[in-house]
Amino acid sequence: MDLSIMIPELLLALPLTLAITFTAMIAGFVLALITTTFRVRRTPVVSQFADLYVSYARSVPVVLQLFVAFYGLPLVVDLFDVEDFVSPNVAAMVGLSLYHGGYLSEVLRPAYLAVERGQHDAADSLGYTFRQKILRVVGPQAVHIALPGYGNAIIYLIHNVALVMYIGAADVMATAHLVMERDYNQYQFETYLVLAAIYSLLCLVAWLVVRFFEMRNSKFALTATPAKVTMMASV
Amino acid sequence: MLELKNLKLSYGSTQILNGVDLSVKRGDVVSIIGPSGTGKTTLLKCINYLVKPASGTIGFDKLKMDYQRPDNTAIQAIRLRTAMVFQQFNVFKNMTVIQNVMDPLVVVQRKSKDEARAIALQELDRVGLSDKLDSYPSQLSGGQLQRTGIARALAVKPDVMLFDEPTSSLDPELVGEVLRVIKDVTSSGITSLLVTHEMQFAKNISNRIVFMDRGVVAADGSPTEIFDAPSNPRLAQFLNSELAIQ
Questions:
Q1: Residues in chain A whose beta carbon is closer than 8 A to a beta carbon of chain B?
Q2: What GO MF annotations does this protein's record show (chain B) (predicted)?
Q3: Fewer CB in 10 Å around end: N or C, chain B?
């Protein structure tokens, strides 16, 4: 086996893995913000649907959610009378965005609730509108509280991108299988090991980015004396 | 200028406010005293609608509102003309001292940053925090936090200051610095309502004392009437037990 051939072959599929990850990260974050807003404001009817969506995203296995997206999306597209554009890649992005959004909502909601009542009271008493209160006071504090949980959510997302091969998207995982079969399944262990290294690196980078924001915000540490944590990559 | 009538509020089956009437004239410094759990703080928070009474009315100058028909415009108008100092300080934790004081001016009152900064510097100087401008709340003592809270409240130039037990969660040795600031504020002529357990302080700074007991105003009068010749037996009993502690 020649690593110098195998690794570039795997890396060729990395852009797709990254594209799916980033799409789900961004779309999921927006979805989570919207869902969480409805859920904490308890808007009638809408918040019940938001709850239903979150429990779907959190309780249905991710593989199953991908299948639902893959087979369900064409039906939805058909309803709107447009040409079917649902490829495995699109289905993967939509499916994982929905999963990540629901999961993240359950990170953001407790973080929002963890901001002290008194911070709301102070902003209300000074005449802040709900929007101003969220943007200026509660939001920044909630984000700080949510960061460690957000880091976990990102890592789970990266792991779950490996499942898109089940609906036929050619990510690094699917490519690894093609490479192994072409080599008559001689080098399975080695290929999986390289794959593991790739995923570890992705998660490490994600962890470093989240950690950077944690450190940056720690100046307004919500506890008086921030716990001294050694910089150990916990991924 | 401020008139509350027949305020009622209960949490579950516990009646907190049981028909409270209170009127405050411009320039009054009113201290509200009474045993714990009689609704002093709740009453104060009804004024700016941080708690929602079940019934009653509020009059604020020409503004009138029935709490059974809450009116967001009226609530906002009242909030813009009052400022509250909290027992738990409630200084914005994500902002430095000066940002805390500037933010309401910029965000709510739409003042320019420069103007807001000038006002903030002035108020922070008044409460003696000129050397802590860029500290975050996590780096401050309780007394410094509360003085930040007072500066933030003063900076919006309210018509009425609402002090909700401003020294109750402070270490004994930090109480003095906060009381000095409050005394300076109330002697400047701004209408103030103060919920407190500091009896001697209340007697010194107020021109009126309101004694609350079991959700109603049980006695109301000048400091001399209340402290030196308490007519109400519950009040006499309360003062005895409070003075025994102090």
A1: 116, 118-119, 121-128, 132, 136-137, 140-141, 144, 219-224
A2: ABC-type amino acid transporter activity; ATP binding; ATP hydrolysis activity
A3: C
Candidates B49, B90, B138; nearest CB to A122: B90
CATH number of domain containing B177? 3.40.50.300
Cβ–Cβ below 8 Å for B90 and A141: no
**DSSP 8-state symbol, B48:** T
* Range(s) of the domain holding residue B38: 2-245
pTM of the model: 0.85
Q: Which fold has domain A3-220?
A: MetI-like fold (1.10.3720)
Conformation bin of residue B231: beta by default, left when phi > 0, alpha when psi is -120 to 50: alpha
Q: Does B86 touch chain A (CB under 8 A)?
A: yes
A125 contacts A77 by C-beta, under 8 angstroms: no
Query: Is B92 in contact with A123 (Cβ distance < 8 A)?
Result: yes
Domains in chain B, number:
1
Q: Testing the interface with B: which of A119, A126, A218 to mutate, by most B Cβ within 10 A? A: A126
Q: For chain A, what is the radius of gyration of the CA atoms?
A: 21
Does the interface ipTM go beyond 0.90? yes
Reported in sequence order, the residue ranges of chain B that DSSP labels E, i.e. its strands, are 2-11, 14-24, 29-33, 55-60, 63-66, 82-85, 160-164, 191-195, 208-213, 216-221
Reported as a single tens digit per residue, the pLDDT across B57-103 is: 999 998 999 999 999 999 999 999 999 999 999 999 999 999 999 99
